[in-house]
Every structure is written in structure tokens, then in C-alpha cells.
Specification:
Oligomer: single chain
Number of strands: 0
Helix content: 55-70%
Order of helices and strands: HHHH
Number of helices: 4
Shape: elongated
Radius of gyration: 20 Å
């Protein structure tokens, strides 16, 4: 039986490549018995979508500015 670590890795890999029949069967058997991995499998499309949006965000939103009050305290 797969460990949760291996199961979630296979779920992630399935987003990039087709799984073999053995991998699909192993994953299906694991997720039948593991509630945590079933939930991860349901959440994976959302995680993937958010990661994709984050990676393709405009550069102007990627800059981080220090809070104004912090700058004033340090400078004065």
C-alpha cells in the first residue's frame, strides 16, 4: 500500500503526466481508505489554479514595500 506521501506525490504528478495502470490502481486503493488523501485530491485543482495565478501575476504586485510607520521609526 502507498504511503500518504507517495499518494499525494502521484496525485500531483497526475496533473503533469498520465499515470500507469499500476499507479492508478495503487492510488485508488489508497484513497478509498485514506480520508486525508481524498480531501487533498479534491483540493488539488484549487491549489494548482492558485499556484498558476500566483506564478503569472503582474510584476507590479510582486514588489513588497515596508510599512510607512516602520520607516519613520527607523529614520527618526
Amino acid at each position: 500500500m502507498l504511503s500518504c506521501h507517495k499518494a499525494t506525490r502521484l496525485m500531483s504528478e497526475s496533473q503533469e503526466r498520465p499515470l500507469s495502470q499500476f499507479e492508478q490502481l495503487s492510488l485508488a486503493l489508497h484513497t478509498v481508505m485514506c480520508n486525508g488523501c481524498r480531501q487533498f485530491e479534491r483540493q488539488l485543482p484549487i491549489i494548482r489554479s492558485l499556484a498558476h495565478r500566483f506564478a503569472h501575476r503582474p510584476e507590479t504586485t510582486a514588489t513588497v514595500q515596508e510599512p510607512q510607520d516602520r520607516v519613520e521609526k527607523d529614520g527618526g
